[in-house]
Amino acid sequence: MTHFGIPEIDERLAGLMGMVDRMSELQSRMQEMTATATDADGRIEVAVDASGRVSALRIDPRAMRSASEDLAEAIKTAVSQAQDSLKGQMDGLMAEMAGSTGVDIDAVMASPGSLQELAVELGRVARAGSTVEEVQAALTEMTRRTTGLNT
Predict the structure, then answer these.
(1) In whole angstroms, what is the distance from residue 134 CA to residue 76 CA?
(2) N or C end of the chain: smaller count of CB under 10 Å?
(3) What domains are there in the chain, each with its CATH number?
């Protein structure tokens, strides 16, 4: 697909749009992640959602015979294990995506504005009849924001 009829710009635009699509996929996959952990006795089971918040808690009735301090500690431990598992999943996904896209994930996550805003801006530039210089400047800024690289 050509937007400007200038191969170098069209290639950069296509590459950047591909990165935006892959980063959007990353965000979607991360939002769907969950993790579950069980205490050593198998009497406490905790599930956390993508934000790390407890989404489910199962306490076997036999656990209720434990001292309250022991029960509380078992719950805290299971929650921490579930959150650690979730973090591991997210780190793995981010490493996978960074490896396949060359994107500096940390730079993207720390940058202001969403990927959707980047996609809208790319579309605006592509349709606006912008000059070559304006397009190159916009592509450079968007590349910097998505990859952390100054090109």
Answers:
(1) 54
(2) N
(3) 7-147 (3.30.1310.10)
